[in-house]
Amino acid sequence: MDFATAIGFLTGFGFLIWGIANSGDLSNFYNFPSIVIVCGGTIAATFISYPLSKVIRTLKVVKNAVSTKKKLASDVINQIINLANIARKEGLLALEEAGENIEDQFLKKGILLIVDGTDPELVRNILETELTFMEERHKEGQGIFDAMGTYAPAFGMIGTLIGLINMLATLEDPATVGPKMSVALVTTFYGSVLANLLFIPIANKLRGKSKNETLLKELMVEGLLSIQAGENPRIIEEKLLTFLSPEMRDSFQREQQSESEEMQ
Q1: Of all residues in the chain, what percent are helix, strand and coil, respectively (each to 5)?
Q2: Smallest Cα–Cα separation from 123: which of 222, 199, 40, 45?
Q3: Cβ neighbours of 110 (radius 10 Å)
Q4: How many CB atoms lie within 10 A of CB 216?
Q5: CA distance 66 to 34
Q6: What pTM, to 2 d.p., does this model score?
Q7: C-alpha–C-alpha distance, residues 264 and 243, integer Å
Q8: CA-CA-CA-CA torsion sign (151, 156, 161, 163)
Q9: How many CB atoms lie under 10 A from the CB of residue 38?
Q10: How far apart (Å, rounded) are the C-alpha atoms in residues 112 and 96?
Q11: Among 28, 53, 200, 255, which has the highest number of CB atoms less than 10 A from its own CB?
């Protein structure tokens, strides 16, 4: 699991439990019907809003939000530069053999298009179209968790209204008012916690992962087109570095300098 995600979940739930334990009784915050209302209602509303296949597919890729596996922009740039050197020394056709060892299917497709002699503008259109649809698929997953983050507090409020109705029905007995009010408010508590500590953070994490992947794919498109145009590998490197933030650029250059010193 991603270290930051683990810290967030542990500290979030930890502080909640600590705060509850230091101000009251943890058992006061457990109510099974409230859990059923919030979780069941959120799941039901999600299934109504989205096709079942999309919901299941999204839940399968939740691991991407907490995964520590991350492809770095510097690795992509190095990969592109290596391909540029091969093309410069041996020609574009030599890229076909180099492409067989590449795991990234997007980059491999671009290499094969170049080797096949596809027009540069068509190469750009094909790769950018695939990139657009990739972003749309990512937005579906983010949207589902954003929706769940909206539904959970709403069903928490519905549970609270149910509790208040039950409380008002027995208002003649003052002894029942306090416990029933407590149960009513617990449902809103569940909905708020699920939304703000689980669903919305996961949606934001997926959004950040998607932005990073989109950046890498844009790097690949620009790099491949530069290789096809026969540009100097050094110029290609400078061009790709403009995609990075100043901090990432400095880090990349330090890595390159360190590797150069080790080779000497």
Answers
A1: 85, 0, 15
A2: 222
A3: 29
A4: 20
A5: 28
A6: 0.81
A7: 29
A8: positive
A9: 29
A10: 6
A11: 200
Record the tokens describing residue 197, joined without a space: 């500590």
Give start and end residues of each alpha helix (H) in 67-198: 73-90, 95-99, 105-115, 120-169, 177-194
Positive or negative, the CA dihedral 205, 242, 73, 259 is negative
Tokens read off for 254: 């330090």
In a structure prediction context, what are the per-residue pLDDT tens digits for the chain, which is 264 residues long?
677 788 888 899 899 888 888 877 788 888 888 999 999 999 999 999 999 888 888 877 777 666 666 677 888 888 899 999 999 888 888 888 888 888 889 999 999 999 988 999 999 999 999 999 999 888 888 899 999 999 999 999 999 998 888 888 777 777 777 777 777 889 999 999 999 999 999 999 889 888 888 989 999 999 999 999 999 988 998 888 888 878 777 777 777 676 655 655
* Residue recorded with tokens 């250059």: 253
| AA letter at 88 | R
